[in-house]
Amino acid sequence: MKICRFDNDRLGLVDGNHVRDVTAALDCLPRYSYPHPPFDALIANLDEVCARISSLAPTAPLLPLQGRKLLAPIANPGKIVAAPVNYTKHLEEARAQAGIHHNSQKIGLFLKANSSLVGPSHGVALQHADRRNDHEAELVVVIGKAGRNIQSAKAFEHIAGYSSGLDMTTRGPEERSLRKSIDSYSVLGPWFVTADEISDPANLGFSLTVNGQLKQKANTRDLILDIGALIEFASSFYSLQPGDLIYTGTPEGVGPVVPGDIIVTEFDGIGRMEVAVSAAAREAQ
Question: Which of 37, 93, 221, 281 is the most buried (most CB within 10 A)?
Answer without folding.
Answer: 93
